[in-house]
Design goal:
By secondary structure, the protein is α+β, with helices and mostly antiparallel strands. The chain has two domains: 14-194, Immunoglobulin-like (Sandwich), CATH 2.60.40.3120; 201-464, 3-Layer(aba) Sandwich (Aminopeptidase). The protein is built from nine helices and 23 strands. It has helices spanning 25-32, 201-214, 261-274, 279-287, 298-302, 326-340, 373-389, 416-423, 444-464, and strands at residues 14-18, 38-42, 45-46, 52-53, 56-61, 80-82, 91-96, 101-105, 119-123, 131-136, 159-161, 168-169, 174-176, 179-184, 190-194, 218-225, 231-237, 248-254, 288-293, 344-351, 360-363, 402-403, 429-434. The radius of gyration is 25 Å and the shape is globular. Its cofactor is Zn(2+). Residues 197-469 form the Peptidase M14 domain. One of its GO terms (biological process) is proteolysis.
Length: 469
Amino acid sequence: MKTENLFAQKNVGVICVVDHASIHRSDRRAIRSYPSVIVPALHKTTLANGSLLGRSIIVVLAMLGGILQANHCTAEDPLTVVADFEGASVGDILVDDVARCVSFMPGGDPQRGWPCWWYFRVDGIKPNEAIALRLRGSTATVEKKKPLAASWAMPKRATYSIDGVTWLHTDEGKRDGQWMIYTLTPNAASVYVAWGPPYTPQTAEVFVDAMAAKSPHAEATELCRSREGRAVPMLYVREGELETEKRFGVWVQARQHAWESGSSWVAQGFGEWLVSDDANAAWLRQHAEVFLIPIMDVDNTATGNGGKNAVPHDHNRDWSPQPHWNEIMAAQRRIGDLVGDGRMDVFLDLHNPGPGDTSFFYVLPRDMLSEPMLSLRDRFIDLAYTRISKMKPLIPMSNKPRVTGSNYHPLWRQISSNWVSMNGNPHTVSLCLETVWNSENSTTAGYRAVGANLAAAVQEYLAERPEKP
């Protein structure tokens, strides 16, 4: 929020927004003695940029010399919130230039998914200055019910970057009633802050292009165009002269729920390992064809919306005979081709779980599967768990899968991993991996390491399988 010059009168200076509680008691008495320069306090105040402020007062700094202490509210160094870039989302902003604090809640349209994602930039920071972020949960109602629990929007540690490329954690935030307060000293004039490390459609495009430039065996392509006309980047990988019909089919997708940014970093780690010089990665390229989509819900990711439980339903409830979303239609066609060729070997859908969860797999109930699918699924889970659970630094993971059967959701049959299991080949392994987001190692490096270990588990599993006839 910028300091605003809202009045045309020659003698009126600038407007500075401050929290009433932050003004010294003596200053309040002085301000009351100058009623002609005070805009009355409002419960909801709208500024020229359309922002709604909570309970605050607006002080006109005209010829009041000395009324406010110099360090209280200075027009020359205001903090400014910027959210006009891809993936940005923030709402109900209140900037306190006295306390050097930004209060806010997640933005986003609840019709386009849970309002728990937040991502914006703060400008106007002084050298070596600490700033505070005061976060509260969204007040928007979801699914015609009460607001979403604030914990979904409140990681223990916020994520920040001074260049929009390298993402770091803040120290642990401190809970104060309805607020979570994060403090950071970015040592830069501007800092990007977010719920987790952002991964936008542009990031996905840069990634697939980089992998294609690095490896002659990787192709940067598109799954399709979204309903809003955006490209859905896809990485396609295969090496050597082995005929297509003799190759294993591997499908990896992330971000069916737009707010779950960590899952895209897991996908990136998978792709980076796949095109690496590792001998096992080379084996996988030579014996399989791999389809990797870092972001399925590109529209909600680009616009800073949550995606989860979007109207009419989200991407991971859309795997039906008549999908609503273009990405699902395109994925079903390609997966259907693999199934038709008897080559739908491994399907992995990548997500982030609830705020208190470790990493784990979602699976169909055992009584819904038959052999060899059941034992093959169990074998893959064992291989993946063994690798991921031994990572250093640790990414907490449970070896007990959770079930997404009829008691999980009314549209449980339209969940992607369930749909692939029920429509795949007898040997298809189809799983959803939920990677923990609320831990100290839930960073870009941690997520990418999960992806690399997941890819290595795919290779190890397929190396045990008989060759295609």
